[in-house]
Amino acid sequence: MGMQTIGRPTAPVVSESGSVQTVSGSKGLLQHEDLIFEIGDAEKTGVDLPVPSGRADRLGGVTRQHATGLPGLTEPEAVRHYMRLSQRNYAIDLGLFPLGSCTMKHNPRLNEKAARMPGFADIHPMQPQRTVQGALELINELATWLKTLTGMPAVAMSPKAGAHGELCGLLAIRQALISRGEGETRKRVLVPASAHGTNPATAIQCGFIVDEIAADARGRVDMADLKGKLESTDDIAGIMLTNPNTCGLFETDIKEIADLIHAAGGYFYCDGANFNAIVGRVRPGDLGVDAMHINLHKTFSTPHGGGGPGSGPTVLSDALAPFAPVPFVVKDADGFHLVEDVEGEGAEAFGRMVAFHGQMGMFVRALTYMLSHGADGLKQVAEDAVLNANYIQARLKDVMTPAFEGYCMHEALFSDAFTADGIETIDIAKALIDEGYHPMTMYFPLVVHGAMLIEPTETESKQELDRFCDALRVVAERAAAGDEALKAAPYLAPKTRLDETRAARKPILKWTPPAPEAIAAE
Ligand SMILES: *Cc1c(COP(=O)(O)O)cnc(C)c1O
User: Fold this and answer.
1) How far, in Å, is the centroid of ligand 1 from the Cα of 162?
2) Which of 29, 44, 427, 437 yields a CA-CA distance of 20 to 30 A from 378?
3) Burial of 131 (0-12, 13-18, 19+ CB in 10 A)
4) 104 lines ligand 1 (CB under 6 A)
5) Does residue 370 register a pLDDT over 70?
6) 198 C-beta closer than 6 A to ligand 1
7) Which of 168, 198, 241 to mutate to test the pocket of ligand 1 (most atoms within 8 A of CB)?
8) Beta-carbon contacts of residue 270 (< 8 Å; ≥ 6 apart)
């Protein structure tokens, strides 16, 4: 018997607030599931092998003396454990996933089919290169598409996430500054207040100093503040700017910003996580960008979330291209080969970021996505993503408060100005769970009070958008009316309202076996 049974009712209980507790802990057809440590047992195993006899210790006496403490499960138990947990997950295959900045679009099954082809899925990174010419060609072909779509001359394919791509871009910038003899003097990186947290984190990781630029009343870079920071200085390494920015707005002064940064001797890093809004319509290379990562898992549709998998190829301008990390693919008379070392063709590379060449599975999915859409289809992706976000903004703006005036790009941003006193963004997010939706991105970007950022993407139909808006409208109206019941939502989720502060400040990250008394008490 696990600890969980303590305090469970002997008959179903419906509380005054509407939450339900069943005898089994399960609800509807959703099974209750304890921790794997509670259901598993070190003595249990999924295989039935005879204990080998006459075994000599060949480990020189370092054989483990004690049990590892890992729980054992039979195969059906293991399958059910993860199946039950998976049913608590929200998924893009279940419904609209409104998380802003994350581009949770449908992942076409064709991508999966291509990625599972043995020629891509079953190869080994240390295979002789002549036996993996197709895979190298695919990497090269994807690189060509990325360079074409961004209007940039070079791309580093190996970074394994957006944040990793940022690291790649800033390491290239640092290397370029070192090669100019200014590695020690140019240390300041400008980052707008609305930036994704990874931007300042990356800059600091690379040894730069972050200098925050204010946002103006239109949600864009405050040009007066920017110009002030660039006046008579020679310590600017560069700027990290997201476009469209994290407020879901196009930075209308972007070309002037690029010129100002270049005139000040710095480089322009663009966070390309929001490329979905402009792919096929705007080429960052035309805007003066020196480096930009592309989240293949966002713009080019590969399943992501919960930390992976990702892929963040980073396009580079002529100024930064020589410093791109190894390995990279080149084509010569004998076919494709990888430049692996910081010498010869890779002499100026800043180094290496990953063991091998990057995320092959993501590369296959992204190229499949591009080829199945074609150039015209990718342009329509951006157009429909922007249209869908504006539809959401239009359908909600009479009950919620848009953060900025006018049309948005690919995501609709609201502030909490419409809520009654005492009702906060988190209450709206939690109530949305009861209505069947994963919450939108909350409290980000920081420049908007109680921010709610919604990115529907282009893959939602009008029916799905309406279904979501209908649910959110009702919650928003309750928030405006000061409905106190929102404070305890969600009522229908397996876990109701948690103590967020305690969860953040004192998280219990380690399972400890129940004390013997507790077991005895059962
Ligand atoms: C997602 C995102 C990132 C980071 O990308 P990861 O792939 O999660 O590392 C950076 N900036 C912005 C604006 C993003 O939305």
Assistant:
1) 5
2) 437
3) exposed
4) no
5) yes
6) yes
7) 198
8) 240, 241, 242, 243, 284, 287, 289, 291, 292
For residues 266 and 237, the answer to whether their CB atoms sit within 8 Å is yes
Q: Is the CB of 292 under 6 A from ligand 1?
A: no
DSSP state of 401: E
Pocket test residue of 101, 168, 275, 454 for ligand 1, highest count of atoms within 8 A of CB: 101
445 lines ligand 1 (CB under 6 A): no
Q: Where are the beta strands (DSSP E) in 193-235?
A: 209-213
| Full-model pTM | 0.91
Residue 273 C-alpha to ligand 1 middle, in angstroms? Answer: 6
Contact 213, 240 (CB under 8 A): no
Q: How far is the CA of 42 from the centre of ligand 1 (A)?
A: 40
Residue 106 near residue 446, CB atoms below 8 Å: no
**pLDDT tens string 267-293:** 999 999 999 999 999 999 999 999 999
* 395 within 8 A of 412, measured Cβ to Cβ: no
> Which atom number of ligand 1 is nearest to the Cα of residue 297?
7
Of 168, 191, 158, the C-alpha closest to 266 is 191
How many helices, marked H, and strands, marked E, lie in the chain? 15, 15
456-480: pLDDT as tens digits: 999 999 999 999 999 999 999 999 9
CA dist list (Å): 211 to 183, 199, 203, 252, 345: 18, 11, 10, 21, 36
Query: Would strands 291-293 and 441-442 be described as parallel, antiparallel, or unpaired?
Result: unpaired
Smallest CA separation from ligand 1 atom 15, residue: 101
The one-letter code for the residue type at 79 is V
Distance 213 CA to ligand 1 centre (A): 20
Instruction: For residue 61, report the distance from its CA to the centre of ligand 1, in Å.
Output: 48
Please tell me the distance from the alpha carbon of residue 206 to that of residue 461, in angstroms, as a whole number.
43
What's the angle, vertex CA 463, arms to CA 250 and CA 273, rounded to 5?
30
Mutate to test the pocket of ligand 1, among 104, 196, 246 (most ligand atoms within 8 A of CB): 196
Residue 132 has pLDDT above 50, yes or no: yes
295 lines ligand 1 (CB under 6 A): yes
Cα separation, 341 vs 351, in Å, equals 8
pLDDT in tens, 234-274: 999 999 999 999 999 999 999 999 999 999 999 999 999 99
Rounded to 5 degrees, what angle do the CA atoms 118, 122, 126 make?
135
**Structure-token match 């903004």, residue found:** 393
Question: Which ligand 1 atom sits closest to the C-alpha of 164?
Answer: 9
